[in-house]
Amino acid sequence: MLVDLLTTPSIYYANVVGIDGRVWASMTLDKRTPISNQTGHAIELPYVSTSSTALYMLAGDSTVWSLRLPDGKQAVATHIPVGPGMEAAFAVSPDDSTIAVSVLDFNRSPVHVLLYTDNLGGGNQHVIFESDSDYVWPVAWHSGLLVLARAYGPYEEDIAKAAPGRDNPYSAVSYHIVDPITADRIYLLGGCTVSGPLSPAGSGCIQGGTIDWQGNVSPPWSTRDWGSVSSAAALSPDGLWVAATTPDSPDRMAIWTPDGRVITWVYGAGTRDWVGWLDDQHILSGSYLNASFQPTVSNAIKDEFDHPVSVRGFYAARLPTDIV
Asked: pTM for the whole thing?
């Protein structure tokens, strides 16, 4: 999944790209209504979620569309109750039965977050968490648990507090893995500042190294601090590789081994951007910052080919989800 937020001010594009670089589907959807006040600009929450069978996309402030595999059928999946001055983020369970939603209410001071779960079709809403200071939103499901991204605050300006800034598609500094019924935290992925997209193996860390789904941080994979001198670090599904640039070659993505070796290089967008692993070998590059960057699918391990992608955007998720 490539999400393009840069090409057009009021709309975004959700692009499904195959391992051969071909565009399988491309949807045009309205962005959220911008929210700003004297404190700052509302944080850019994720727009998409993937299950084992479908892509789910937010259209505007409240409508969630689905695109299903393998026929590509599109339909409205649900509506999120969002009023003026509010924004929402959601994650659909792998089996398409349940949706978890966070609604941030910027009409209140401090901003209030409400987290609930519901049947995807509605009718069984259950509030599991509320706060005026701890800002979390659902980004995935893992082993029957709910994965919440946590940020330092509800404004874009708060991201700067997590130096060096945004390094993943979710505006997260850490992840809370919680019981979807009680919101009790089971695991905290907070031993480092998380980097890159979520992986079946966990996440990269901007300080170097990786963190697994139980919150265990590995030693640094290299002598470099990925987050301050390179791009965000993306962990492969099997946990054997990390993709991150080096300051000496910002236009190339190094493929690191745990002992700090670089085994090969692939095309990359440069510092502050991440790639997505499509499987244990193939990488989809993209850019959150550069509207003109051309994404590419590459074999990161065998260094055999590059497939240019005709659409733009950053890697946002894998369809079907591999975070299960």
From this structure: 0.95
